[in-house]
Amino acid sequence: MHLSQGLFLLSALGVAFAASSTHEVKESVNPPRGWTLHSVAPAHHNIELKIGLPQPNFPILEKHLYEVSDPFHERYGQHLTKEEVEALVAPHQESVDLVSEWLATHDIRESDIQRSPARDWVTIKVPVRLAEKMLDTTYHVWVHDASGDSLVRTTSYSLPKHLHEHVDVIQPTTMFSRWKAHKSTIHDVSPAPASLTGPNAKIDASCNSTITISCLQQLYNVGNYTPSADVGNSIGITGYLEQFANRDDLQTFYAEQRPDAVGTTFNFVSVNGGLNNQSADAAGVEANLDVQFAFGLSFPINSTFFSTGGRPPFIPDIGTPEDTNEPYTEWLDFILAQENPPLAISTSYGDDEQTVPENFARRACAGFAQLGARGVSLMFSSGDGGVGDGDDNPATQTCLTNDGKNQTKFIPGFPASCPFVTAVGGTEFIEPEIAVFFSGGGFSNFFARPAYQDEAVKKFLDTLPPGTFEGLFNPNGRAIPDVAAQGERFRVFLAGEAISVAGTSASSPAFTGIVALLNDVRLKAGKPPLGFLNPLLYTIPEGFNDITIGNNPGCGTEGFTAIPGWDAVTGLGTPNFGKLKDLVVGY
Ligand SMILES: *[C@@H]1O[C@H](CO)[C@@H](O)[C@H](O)[C@H]1NC(C)=O
Ligand SMILES: *[C@@H]1O[C@H](CO)[C@@H](O)[C@H](O)[C@H]1NC(C)=O
Ligand SMILES: *[C@@H]1O[C@H](CO)[C@@H](O)[C@H](O)[C@H]1NC(C)=O
Ligand SMILES: *[C@@H]1O[C@H](CO)[C@@H](O)[C@H](O)[C@H]1NC(C)=O
C-alpha cells in the first residue's frame, strides 16, 4: 500500500496523524559469531511477525508471584487465576490502538491480526517484502557455520518514532538462537541390569552403571509412596523439533521398569501443528527419554506430551515458504491460553543465553512468571556445556561473545537463566552421587540475582579465591542451576531397543517426576500445588542430597566446583523425596 492510501485510510477512521512519523532504529545487533550471511531473503517468503506490546503492570505481577511463592508469606499458595494474570500483563489501550493504526497503514486489518488473550502479543503473517517495508530493513538468509542450519533474519530494524514506547519487541528479526535438545545418546547397551540389592547396600549396585526408574526411586528416597490419579494433579513434557514420543516404546519401557503402568499412556496435545508420528523409526530419543522417565516416576498422575511444530531451520535452497518463530514462543502462547495447564512441566531444550536478544528473553521469562503465578512449576535442563556454550566440545570450547567483541566469557543457557524457572543440572554415579562434568552452571548476563538465592549464592561466591574467573562471569547474575538430578546412563527404549542416554535432558524430567509426587502430597493434604518452586526450595536445603564432588569444565577452565551448600554445578543438590514430602506440607 502506498503512503497516500494509508493516510486516506487513517483520516477516514478519524485517527491521529502520528502514524506517519519517521522511522528510527528500534534494535540493532552485531552480526552473530558463527553465522554467515548467505543471500537476500526470497521474495515469496512469509514471516509470522510477533509484536510484543509493553506490559506496564508486570512489576505488580512479579510482586504477586513472589508473595504466593514465598512459604513465609500469608498468601503462599494463593495462586492467581488466568484472568487475573492476564489483567496484569495487559498493555495500555493506547499501545494497542497505535500499533493497530500503524498496521492499518500497511493494509493489515483487525481480521488479519491474531491477539493473545491478554492482548500483549500481536501476531501477523506477512510477506518478507512487506515486513521489510514496515520495519525499514532488509532480511537475509543466514547460515550457521557449524550445523548448516539457516534462518531468515536481520541485524537491525526500525519503527516509526512514536511507536518505540508502545512496542517492546518484534520477532523474528534479530534472534539467532537455535533451540536444541540437551542430550547425547550412546547406543549399544548391555541387557537389563539385574536389580539385586546386597544385604547392606542401600541402592542397587547396578544403578552405578545404568539408571532406571527403580534407581531414581531408591536414590531420591521415594520409598513406597503411591500418588493418586484423582486429586487433580498433572504433569507435562514439551517436545520440539519433530521429537516424537512413541507409545509402544513406553509400553516396552513400562514392562521392564514400571510393570504396574503397563497398558496406560499419556495424553497428546498438538501445538502449532506439531505431530506425534507413531512410526517406530520416527520416535525421538529426547521425547522418549522425557516421557518414559517423567511419566514412569509419577504414574498414575495425569500426563501430557506437547509436540510443538514450527521448526527452524529454514532451508533456503528448497525455498521453504514459511519461516516461523522460535517454536517455544508458540508453545508459551499456547500454554498461557489454556485454562488448566499441567502443574509441573519439564523442558529439555534451550540455547545459549547470548543467542537470544535480551528484550526477547525478558518477554519469554515474563511468560514463565505468568505460569508460575498460576501455580505451574516449570523445570528446564541447565545445559550440557558445563560453564561454556552448548555448541562446542567442552575440551575445545572458545566461549567467545557474539557481541562483536569476541571476548571469552562463560556462556549460561536460556531459558534456565530466567529467574522464574527451576534450572536442573546433572549428576552421575551413586554412593557417592557426584556432579557430572557437563552440568550447565553459571551466572546470567541478562537477569540479576533474585532475592531467593541471595544468601546461598553469596556464600558460594565467598568461597571462591579472589580473582577466580574474573571477567569470565557476572557475579551479580541469576545463578544456575537451582537443583540437580542424575544425568548419565539412562536406560531408554527407542524403536524397541534399549539405549543409554545422557544429558541434563534426563535430569529435568527426572526432577519433574519428583515435583509431581510432591504436588500429590500437597493436593492430598488439601493444599494448593507448589507453583513456582525456587523461593521454597532455597528455604529447605535439608530436603536435598548435597552434592559436594565434581566440577563443570568449559571455556578452557575447570569450571566451578561442587561444594557443601549451593554451588554453580549442582545447585542445592538432588531431591530427597522422603524429606521433601514432609517439608512441603508444612507451608
Ligand atoms: C511418520 O514417520 C515415518 C518414518 O519416518 C514416515 O515414513 C512417515 O511419512 C511419517 N508420517 C507422517 C504422517 O508424517
Ligand atoms: C488429564 O489431562 C488432560 C489434558 O490436560 C485432560 O483433558 C483430562 O481431562 C485430564 N484427565 C483427568 C482424569 O483429569
Ligand atoms: C571476531 O571474530 C570474527 C569471526 O571469527 C571476525 O570476523 C571479527 O573480525 C572478530 N572481531 C573482533 C573485534 O576481533
Ligand atoms: C560407582 O562408580 C564410580 C566410578 O567408577 C566409582 O568411583 C564408585 O565407587 C562406584 N560406586 C559404587 C557404589 O560402586
TrEMBL record:
Annotated cofactor note: Binds 1 Ca(2+) ion per subunit.
Q: Which GO terms describe its cellular component?
A: extracellular region
- The record lists the organism as Dendrothele bispora (strain CBS 962.96)
Protein name in UniProt: tripeptidyl-peptidase II
Enzyme active site: 286, 290, 505
Please report the stretch or stretches of sequence annotated as the Peptidase S53 domain. 210-587
Q: Does the keyword Calcium apply?
A: yes
Q: Where does Ca(2+) bind?
A: 546-547, 565, 567
| A GO biological-process term | proteolysis
Q: Where in the cell is it found?
A: Secreted, Extracellular space
- Its Enzyme Commission number(s) read 3.4.14.10
Please name the GO terms that the record assigns under molecular function. metal ion binding; serine-type endopeptidase activity; tripeptidyl-peptidase activity
**Top class in the EC scheme:** hydrolase
